[in-house]
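Could you help me review a protein record that somebody else here produced? My question to you is simply how this chain folds and whether the tokens agree. Thanks in advance; the entry in question is below:
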Amino acid sequence: MIRIKLMGALAHLAGSSEIYIEVDKPKTVDEVLKEIVKGYDKLHDKIIMVNGKVARGDVIVKDGDEIKVMPVLSGG
């Protein structure tokens, strides 16, 4: 099972801030998030972490991994 923690607008689009999914084979972060976040392809500014380390969308995740995704914040 993969644990997915979503923050900000991503949680709103997915309908939950924390989701658990079963995977039958390794997938990329992008593949997993496209399945659960409506409009994921349109969200370009985001920070992805896999198991506590900054990662990209092409990182392979498997059973037991944790993905955290948050929008990039800006201001001044």
Residues 13 and 76 are 26 Å apart (CA to CA).
